[in-house]
Design a protein that fits this description.
The chain has nine helices and eleven strands. Strands 1, 2, 3, 4, 5, 6, 7, 8, 9, 10 and 11 form an eleven-stranded mixed beta sheet that branches. The longest helix has 22 residues. The chain is globular, with a radius of gyration of 18 Å. It is of the alpha/beta class. The model has no long low-confidence stretch (mean pLDDT 92).
Length: 264
């Protein structure tokens, strides 16, 4: 049986100063099965695309197309990695940026890992998460883990311990990490008119996804730190206004209630 294809989703907007480390963390994974590195340069105005071209495309056979305001470049390597690099003219928002990449890879991927462009994966992240998925690949929809936060203002590193999954706790707050591994089947079975990730939501889009997945699949927790998360002061938790956060939290609750009523 061939090893499963894992796609790493990296939505980037003006994070060029961290992009090298982010991409390197994927290329250093100890998983030797096929990995698609899907990078969406989401309306960046810094040198992000130059970094992507140099890091992922230079010297690799590639195919380029332009359509619907997107520059799409696919490149293959002699190793287990392939690249899907997408440049958008305008910033689409993180949800729609990821949706664009998922749509282009959903027919060839077993699972996805979302990685913010200013974060890094530890070398065993993909292999460790896949080891859990293999226990029940049909019923498991998502796997999440602990992570470390690095405050870039003072280099303080803090371990963030996530709690074991509970549907009741998920109804109270988002206990699942945004950088989880999600099966392609879970994305397909929970897709809405607004996309795999709800494109109308600027924040809480991952919480909305976990709620939908938890209604149809198992979600499991790994009590190990598998990701380095940078706290830069430019994260959405710091830059998005409080009223937008509150609006999106209400939206998640409303959508959840609507789905429950529809089942009655």
């Amino acid at each position: 049986m061939n090893p499963p294809v894992v796609t790493v989703l990296i939505a980037n907007h003006n994070n060029g100063k961290y992009l090298n480390g982010c991409i390197d963390s994927v290329l250093k994974q100890d998983y030797h099965g096929p990995i698609i590195v899907a990078i969406i340069d989401n309306g960046s105005t810094d040198d992000s695309w130059d970094i992507i071209e140099r890091k992922c495309l230079k010297g690799n056979p590639k195919e380029t197309i332009e359509e619907d305001g997107l520059l799409v470049v696919e490149a293959s390597t002699s190793t287990n990695f392939s690249f899907l690099c997408i440049k958008t003219d305008l910033a689409l928002g993180p949800s729609e940026a990821r949706n664009v990449a998922i749509k282009r890879t959903i027919d060839k991927s077993f699972s996805y890992v979302t990685l913010d462009a200013d974060d890094e994966m530890y070398p065993n992240k993909i292999s460790r998460m896949l080891s859990v998925f293999k226990n029940d690949p049909i019923r498991i929809g998502a796997v999440y883990a602990d992570y470390d936060t690095l405050d870039t203002s003072n280099d303080k590193l803090i371990r963030e311990y996530k709690e074991p999954f509970s549907r009741n706790r998920l109804l109270q707050e988002c206990i699942v990490h945004s950088g989880s591994m999600v099966s392609a089947q879970a994305f397909m079975d929970t897709e809405e008119e607004t996309g795999y990730y709800d494109r109308t939501m600027r924040v809480c889009e991952d919480y909305d996804l976990w709620m939908r997945i938890s209604e149809r699949f198992l979600i499991l927790h790994i009590p190990e730190s598998l990701t380095l998360v940078r706290v830069t002061g430019e994260n959405s938790s710091s830059t998005v206004q409080k009223d937008i956060w509150e609006q999106n939290w209400r939206r998640v609750a409303e959508k959840t209630a609507q789905r429950q009523y529809a089942k009655v």
